[in-house]
Amino acid sequence: MIRCLFALSLGVLVASILGDALTGDPLYGTLLVVAIVVASIALPLTIIGSVTSGMGLHDPKKVAAAKAAGRTTLARVTGIRATGSAVNDQPVCELELLVVSRQGHGPYRTTLRQVVNLARLPSLQPGAVVVVTQLDPERPEVALDDAPDPDWQRRAETDRQVRDLPTADVWVAPRRGRAPGAIRRIPFVVFPVLAVLGLAGALYPAWDEVGRLVETRSIDTVRAEHDAAAAAETSMFTPGNLRPALDAVLALSGDDVTEVYVYDQWVRVTAPTSPGATTTDEWQYRDGEATHEGASLIQPEPEDVPRQLFDASEIDWEDLPPLFDETERLTGIDDADDPMLWVARKVWADEKPSDPQVHVYVSDDYYDGSVDFAVDGTVVDAYGGAPGSEVAAAAEDDA
After folding, report:
1. Residue 86's CB: how many other CB atoms inside 10 A?
2. Where are the domains of the chain?
3. What confidence tens digit (pLDDT) does each residue in 84-94 have?
4. What is the Cα–Cα distance from 112 to 179, expressed in whole angstroms?
5. Dist. CA 142–CA 97, nearest whole Å
6. Could you tell me where the beta strands, DSSP code E, fall in 227-265?
């Protein structure tokens, strides 16, 4: 099961790296940390399990039962080979044994993988006779007795019969479930399947981006498209987003305001500190939350505050985002950087304030321009614009 968990975590780890590159979703950062932790724990356990599989790590109760049944016997070491693995700095060796069974089976050869204490290594060289316990009278597996009874130890030291046996056939018993001390074997094909399942499951939230990656073969292109789509989804200039944002802010500030600024990803409202006050505060809507930011950086003249006020609830805010596209068209500035939409009255000394107007500002690396609209979308005035645009052409005609 640990190897299955390791395979699954590898799939999740690869998916986390790819998903983060394609989307930047914080989910994949979390998955990456979890996958690394799980893989770093599972990998050593998998290696240890592979090394210790079939190493004579037998159930002491089974060994004791076999001894009580009289299956202690002698075996001659016919070969010893280091596997290259070690546990607690003790080498793992494969011992080739010639076993003399006491259960009706003739002498036979078998192999035992065993952690060998370095101090005992000289006594396990080819030709040495050792004490073993046959675990099952119908099978060849044996357990090496590291602390035999004194009588069996004496027999091993003085034996000539087992030492002089020429050879015997290898006892190959039919496979019957797991061999004693072995890890339950899972078909190898299961591991890549689990890795693919971990990969696919973790990438499911980014499945559309994966599809585009297959088409474009460019992570940078897919990431740019994803970021643009994510920004558009939350943009205040995307239909359906501005009204809920304004509602959330006005619930804190009140409907009577002096200015409303709409940016691509956030909204700022200026309104009297309290009803009837001649000082103003600011409220914001950003990242899905409306907050009170405190006093406005620039305070108006006290006598101007009542003249600047307008009822924000009377404006159909859903009609305003399309004015951004109209401003781009009129000014000839496409793909504007940091666009801004500002709603306020125009206030002049000794003159009646205008009705609330919508001022839309756009710019790129070379040009900027702005258009003033009435709240019903009628163009009131325009400035700047790229050469050849309607706004620039109108300015030339006026000149």
Report:
1. 14
2. 2-52+190-215, 60-164, 242-398
3. 888 788 888 89
4. 11
5. 10
6. 256-257, 259-263
